[in-house]
Structures are given as structure tokens and as C-alpha cells.
């Protein structure tokens, strides 16, 4: 907890020391990385600062999947004594992340730091929206009601989730941004009696300004957004100053790249991660497709942790159209909020010139809604776009349980 208050230069020194440690370990014990080092003629002692990481090649999800277990885990790893986190990513191919006991403890400490720092107490009633498959056995201290989350299923309908929240009467609500948002919208219709959280943390998905505004208006509480990925856990988070996202630089190195080179502060770049504490399954220069904007500002809260400003979502939610323009997923919250009759939506880019828009009817849906959707999209993205609109009862979730408003099947070169 104290480390977050170190000066930036002190945290830089901590990060570089941890980085050099994990690189030496990976070279000595992990065949995948030993081969990557050797293929470039670069060795751990050549990496003396974060910038030197650019001498090494990226690691992809396919690299890790194809190397599991013998080429990504150190020899002699006993999986029966490890914590294994599983996900089905957007490809539907199972992905396993392995943590040893020490790694798991560090990961959980990093995950709890923003909650504790922002006011969560040991015995707060804590409601967490998650997939039932993510519920794990309680630790000994949780049986004493210390940091004991009560789980609300992502897959329940909002009315059932509201009943669960009323039974929990949470001090803290935590979980997928889309689920909290849908509950907030429903509560605006039914009232919030029995649900009065002191803190709300949104996680796992892009939190749009419209979603934030709805949640904050409903509950009368600021939303504190947290960011991460299943492979590395929580990596960045908002404090009450809302000046950006504090990067957990004593747990991860986050590079922001465009065309393989670091972007300047304030510029958009694809985020590449190097984990600093998981010696059981190291991830070095791991690219997952997240896009964000680094910042060189200092947060008024006084923490020395570096900041990132904007998280724009997954790169496969960006869409390239025939004229070469690339659209951020944020465009959809701007376009669609002005169109009456949309309860919920998802845009799927099937081809560079074709979109399929799934729409759940809102209360003011009319015969004019679909033509307006098509007109607005064509006006923004080009008249050559073919826009199909399908009315559905509900928006399907990804295999991971997330509801994403935009997905592209078109590769952006």
C-alpha cells in the first residue's frame, strides 16, 4: 500500500529492478522467451531500462497458447499446486493463466490496492457482478467476513440482479460496467430503495461517458473505473480525483505503441504488457489489443504511480471503412444516443463495407428508428456502407460474459 506514494523516480527504480529480475528468470527457465531472446541477439543484461524492451519481439496470445505448458512454464511446475485462471477469449479458444502461490498473493494485493485506497473497508458488504465460472472458493480470512464478496450473476436479468442487490444491501458494488449500467437503467424506472452503495467500481469493459453518467445519477455515487486484462489482472485504476488511470507500475510495464514505436504522451497507442511478478508463467511484451493514451501528468492525489488518460477499448472494436478512415468504438455512444427507440445495441462489422446492427427496442421505438440508424451511420462512415439492422430480444454476450457494443471482423493493417 505504501509503495504507491513513492516519488515517480523511486517507482521507476522499483520497476526496472523487477523488470530485470523477471527477464533473467524467463531467459533461464522459459523456453519460449529464451528462443525469443536468442532470435534477436538480445540478452537480459542488455535490457537496462523500460525503453530497451523494444529490442525484444512481441508475444501474442497464439504464442502463449501454442507454448502451453512445456514452453511457457518453468520445468517442474506442479499445476496441482497452482491457481489456474481460465478464459475463452474472443476466439473461443480456451486460455489458461497459471499463478504460483507467491504470484497469486501478489496479484490479489495489486487487485485490492485501489479498493482499499479509495475507501473500501475490511468488512464492507461487497457485491460483485461476475460470471458464475469466476467464483472461487473462499479463503480462510473471507470466512471471517473480511474482504468477502457476494456474487451477482452476469447472466441473470436486471430484475433478478436488483433483488440480489437488495438482499446483499452492499456498501460496495463492483463488476462489469455493462451489468451495472443495465441495473442502473432499470432502477431509474423502479427506484433504488434498499440499494445505497458508498462505492462503485466498474471493471472489465469500456465505461462510456453515457454509462458513467447513468450509474452516477442513479446511485448518487462517483464511479471509479478500473482496467486490466484476464492474463495480468488489474493494471490501472481511477482514484477520486478522476485525473486518469493510475498504472500499477510495480506490477506491470505498459508500453503504448504505434507501428512498433512508443507514442508520445497524449497520443493513442496499442498497449503492450510485461508482467513483473508472475514467475510461474511470465508474459513479456504481451499484446492483447487494448488501446489507450499515456499521460505525463501527475495526479493531484499525490501518488507517484504514472497515469494513462483514455482507454478506448479493444483494437478489434475499431472499424476501418473503405475510404481508409478508422473509427474508435466511442463513436457509437455518440451516434446512437441521439436516435430515439434504441434500448441497447451492438454493431458487428462483417466486411469493410458492411455492418450488422443488433437492436433491442426501446420504449420510444417506431418505424422511423431503423431508417434513422442507417442514415446516421452512412453519414458518419460513408454512403457506400451497407447497414443491416436486426431487432433482437437481447444482445448476446461474448464467451467471457461481456456485452460489447462494437466488434469488427475486419483486420486493420
Automatic annotation (TrEMBL):
Protein name: Phenylacetate--CoA ligase family protein
Family matches, as SUPFAM superfamilies: Acetyl-CoA synthetase-like
Organism: Methanoculleus submarinus
Keywords, in A-Z order: Ligase
Entry GO MF terms: ligase activity
Keyword presence, Amino-acid biosynthesis: no
Taxonomic lineage: Archaea, Methanobacteriati, Methanobacteriota, Stenosarchaea group, Methanomicrobia
Keyword Chloroplast: no
